[in-house]
Amino acid sequence: MKILVIEDHEKIAKAIKNGLESQFYAVDIALDGKLGYDLASAENYDVIILDIMLPRMNGLEICQQLRQEGKQTPILMSTAKSQVEDKIKGLNQGADDYLSKPFDFEELLARIKALSRRPPVRLKIVLKVKDLSLNTLSYEVWRNKKKIDLSKKEITILEYLMQHQGQVLNKAQIIEKVWDFDADVLENTVEAHVASLRKKIDRQFPDLPPLIKTVRSLGYKIG
User: Fold this and answer.
1) CA 16, CA 43: separation in Å to the nearest integer?
2) CA-CA distances (angstroms) from residue 165 to 25, 65, 87?
3) Alpha carbon 2 to chain centroid, angstroms
4) Which partner from 21, 176, 178, 223 sits 20 to 30 angstroms from 82, CA to CA?
5) Predicted confidence (pLDDT) per residue in 171-212, tens digit
């Protein structure tokens, strides 16, 4: 098993490395955030141990960027901070578990083993259709490396379409999924939201192929 430790305190990083290597893990160390991100993005690790407070690029930024790229490597956040807000921030950016410093090595080992036992097919945090991505934790939408601002309803419709990539979804299905069950929604409301989505996702990228398609008399699909 190969583990990446991203930790700017060299003594702590080396202590973790030595301890894990004694348990027959292969371990790489990065002493700053930028180097850690580059390694995590380029290599395939089984678990990443990620500190939050890092020079050049902090742990939250690393976690968010990796998840936006579709990297699903289990991430164990570690930090000297123990406030609930910090834990929530880390988990919302896609971290799988959280460990507050100072921690016992046996606990770290147990967390790593638990993360490594998780099945490889996990909940998709980042939905991708070609060059379009939707982070289902932060609800950030990107296309061609450009962030796209959408309303809550537009995001929910887009998420539903992306979850069913290539499938035709009719207006009744979209209404049932996106609006409250007792909401009185007309089909032209769906049409208006989809038209707005098209404008933001397709029409502002005239050099790229359109992603949202209308299937006459049936509904919409993405792909």
Assistant:
1) 20
2) 38, 23, 33
3) 21
4) 21
5) 999 998 887 666 788 999 999 999 999 999 999 999 999 999
Q: Cα(197)–Cα(56) distance, rounded to whole angstroms?
A: 35
Contact 4, 43 (CB under 8 A): yes
Tens of pLDDT, residue by residue over 92-148, are 788 888 888 888 899 999 999 888 877 654 456 788 999 999 988 788 999 998 999
Nearest C-alpha neighbor of 16 from the set 30, 37, 35, 33: 30
DSSP state of 72: -
Cα–Cα distance, 116 to 29 (Å, whole number):
19
Q: Which of 80, 77, 73 is nearest to 88 (CA)?
A: 77
Tell me the pairing of strands 26-30 and 219-222: unpaired
3-state SS assignment for residue 74? coil
What is the SS3 assignment for 194? helix
User: CB of 168 within 8 A of CB of 161?
Assistant: no
Is it true that the peptide bond before 74 is cis, omega within 30 degrees of 0? no
pTM of the model: 0.55
What is the set of domains in the chain, with CATH numbers?
2-116 (3.40.50.2300), 126-222 (1.10.10.10)
CA–CA separation, 193 vs 187, rounded Å? 10
CB 153 within 8 A of CB 139: no
DSSP assignment letter at 77: E
